[in-house]
Each structure stands twice: as structure tokens, then as C-alpha cells.
Amino acid sequence: MPVHIDDHKRCTLSGDTVTIEGLGHEVEIVTDAHLRMSVAILAGERFPITEAEADALTVAGAVDSRRHLKNSGPGSII
pLDDT tens digits, the chain, 78 residues: what are they? Predict the structure, then answer.
């Protein structure tokens, strides 16, 4: 799990090559349309995360900039 949140809303985000810590309100959660998943951004670094991790980060004060993706093209299951 690349996300850890302590009792003081300090968040640690871990990727393949970098680990960054910051306060919850310093994290922004966005939707990456190419990956089709949520990404947490802290200090300019991007970390793909699950929706459960995104929700936990919002509780810790992260800015929630996610948007719902909708595909209306042929063959879409949405």
C-alpha cells in the first residue's frame, strides 16, 4: 500500500523510486484519464492510488479534484 496516514494527518506516499511525506492538505487527488484511476500528487510527484486510498486521503484533508470519467463511444460498458 503506497499510502500511510498517521493520527496527526501526516501522509506518506511511496512509489517505486521515491517516498514523500506531507500534511493531508498538501495532497491533491486527481483523475488520470489515461490510467483510468486516481492519482495523489504531493510535492510534484504523482502516485497512482486506489479509490479506498483516495477516500482516506480526503478524510485526512487532501484536496479532491477527481472527476468521473464517462465514455459514450461504441462498446463502452459505462
Answer: 589 999 999 999 999 999 999 999 999 999 998 888 999 999 999 999 999 999 999 999 999 999 876 666 665 554
| Cell 492510488, residue located | 49
Residues paired with 32 in a beta bridge: 37
CB 29 within 8 A of CB 58: yes
- Which residues fall within 8 angstroms of residue 64, CB to CB, at 6 or more apart? 29, 54, 58
Note the helical H segments in the chain: 51-59
Report which residue type is found at 47.
Answer: F
Q: Write down all domains in the chain, each with its CATH number in brackets.
A: 3-64 (3.40.1170.40)
